[in-house]
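User: My advisor asked me to double-check a structure prediction for GDNF family receptor alpha-4 before group meeting. I don't want to rely on an old file, so could you generate it fresh from this sequence?
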Amino acid sequence: MAHCMESALLLLLLLGSASFTDGNRCVDAAEACTADERCQQLRSEYVARCLGRAAPGGRPGPGGCVRSRCRRALRRFFARGPPALTHALLFCGCEGSACAERRRQTFAPACAFSGPGLVPPSCLEPLERCERSRLCRPRLLAFQASCAPAPGSRDRCPEEGGPRCLRVYAGLIGTVVTPNYLDNVSARVAPWCGCAASGNRREECEAFRKLFTRNPCLDGAIQAFDSLQPSVLQDQTAGCCFPRVSWLYALTALALQALL
Ligand SMILES: *[C@@H]1O[C@H](CO)[C@@H](O)[C@H](O)[C@H]1NC(C)=O
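Assistant: Sure, here is a fresh prediction for GDNF family receptor alpha-4 from the sequence you gave:
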C-alpha cells in the first residue's frame, strides 16, 4: 500500500520528464518484483540464503553463505516466481554501467556464481559435474536443444524461438553451470570458468563456453525480450498503482487550486 503510493507519486513526478523514458530497466524490474507478493517473497528467500561469499567444501562462508542452499533458493525463484517478473530481472536491458552492474549483481554472484577460489576453473570441470548430476544434466541438454545454433551454422536458431531459450537459460541458474553476466560493460554471459588451462581438450571447452558467450540465438532472444519489457512491466504494475494516480491527481489539483 505504502509502496503503491510511493510509486504513484514517483510516477507523477516523472511523467513528462525525459528521464522517464531512459530509466534503469533493472531498477524497474526490481520494483515490479517488490510489488508482487510471490515474487518478493521468493526473492527475499534467495537473498537471505545468498548473502556473503561461498566457502570451499560446502561450509558456510564469511557472512553465512552455503552455496548449495543459495542455489536451491534461486532454482525455486525461477521455478515458482511469475516468469514475466523473474525474466524481467534476469534480462533487463541496460545502456549504462550502473544498470549493468546492478544486473550482474542480481543473483548474489559471490555466493551463487563465482569462487570459492580466485581463479575460475576450466569450463570442463562444471561441465563434467553437470553431466553427472541428475538435476543439472537435463537442464543443460534442454539449453543446448533450445538455444544452440544449428550445427554448422552460426545463426540458424532453433525453431521454437526465443521465449523457450530464455526459459531454459533461467533453468540453469542455481545449477553447477549457473551463468551470469561477465562484466558491467557488455551483455556477455557465461558460467564462472575459463578455457585457458584446458590442455588438449580446449576445443571441447570452447564449444561449451560458446553456448553462452556470444551465442547469437541467446543474445537475440534476450534482445527480443528486452524490446517487449516495458509493456510487460506496465501490465504487471497496472493492477497495483494506476487507479491511485487518479485521486492523487485530484488531490494535487486541489492543492494547486488552494495555492493559486
Ligand atoms: C564496473 O566494473 C568495474 C570492474 O569490476 C568496477 O571497478 C566498477 O566500479 C563497476 N562500475 C559500476 C558502475 O559499478
